[in-house]
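Q: I'm a student working through a structural biology exercise. My instructor gave each of us a protein and asked us to get a predicted structure, then write a short paragraph describing it. Mine is Phosphoglycolate phosphatase. I'm not confident about reading structure output yet, so if you can add a plain explanation after the tokens, that would really help. Here is the sequence I was given:
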Amino acid sequence: MTSPGYDLVLLDLDGTLMNSAPGIVSSIVHTYDHYGVPVPDADTLRRFVGPPITESFLAHGFTAEQLRDVVGTYRADFSVRGMYVNSVFNQITDVLADLREAGVRLAVATSKPEPYARELTARFELDPFLDGVYGASLDEVTRARKGDVIAYALAELDAAQPVPARERTLMVGDRHHDVDGAREHGLACLGVSWGYADEGELVAAGALGVVDSPAELADLILAR
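A: Happy to help. First, here is the predicted structure for Phosphoglycolate phosphatase. I'll explain a few features afterward.
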């Protein structure tokens, strides 16, 4: 797998930069227990990480009529507890520093609601490496799909400084939603193997490739 090098890289958050699954899953289990609904199995719970939480709750046991209250219960727990059961993946900070030093523009584009994403990148000291943190709207309706978040991120970044051509811009993520969203905007998406995708998911979705370490990710972006 080769690369021409990239000038702008959009980075997913959960499963790409941060190991957020333990906290997310804990708050999801709390929500199911609160409503007395059977908790999905471990594989299903893992798939909650990445897509909009509204989609996952609707697909697994809750109705549209319940959704507002269910999401409120989840967020009440997540915002004070689950969000902080989290860590940055090994080597990620060093790789972001290397890319930044090389002049690559970096920004987060995540389906996590933007206020939570901004809180996490600040708390875990990722902000010095980033040109911006862009996420879903809190209602996860007006801006929830990954394609919508990428459109928003590109527009905001372009307003600050013109973004490079599409072939010089890369999305990096761990789920097929990242690949699908990137494709909507003519972007390649590079998958990472340390996230939460099912085996073969990223390749089947059409990812540029899948890297197995942050160091390999940096090498590809910098074409070295």
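A: Here are two points you could use in your paragraph. The chain has two domains: 8-19+87-222, 21-84. The two ends are 12 Å apart (CA to CA). It's a good idea to check both against the output above yourself.
Q: Great, thank you!
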